[in-house]
Amino acid sequence: MNIDGLARDGLIPLPEASHLTRRTPRELLEAAREGDLEVERVAGRTFVRRWSMDALLARGGS
Predict the structure, then answer these.
(1) For the whole model, what pTM was predicted?
(2) Which CATH number fits domain 3-58: 1.10.10, 1.10.3470, 1.20.58, 2.30.29?
(3) DSSP readout, 4-55?
(4) pLDDT truncated to tens, each residue of the chain (62 aa)?
């Protein structure tokens, strides 16, 4: 799996998204369940779509 390629596709690994948003991975997954965040599973790992993370932060979600 090429992480750099996934980043170019707008996917951020869940741990990095957690660090950037200052939310725990569990909080991010809860936001995804509520429809506030889009996540994707690739090769057994969870990634966050950058546009949805940016939208969450713009709404004051950090």
Answers:
(1) 0.76
(2) 1.10.10
(3) HHHHHTTEEEHHHHHHHHT--HHHHHHHHHTTSS-EEEETTEEEEEHHHHHH
(4) 565 666 667 889 999 999 988 999 999 999 999 998 999 998 899 999 988 888 888 877 54
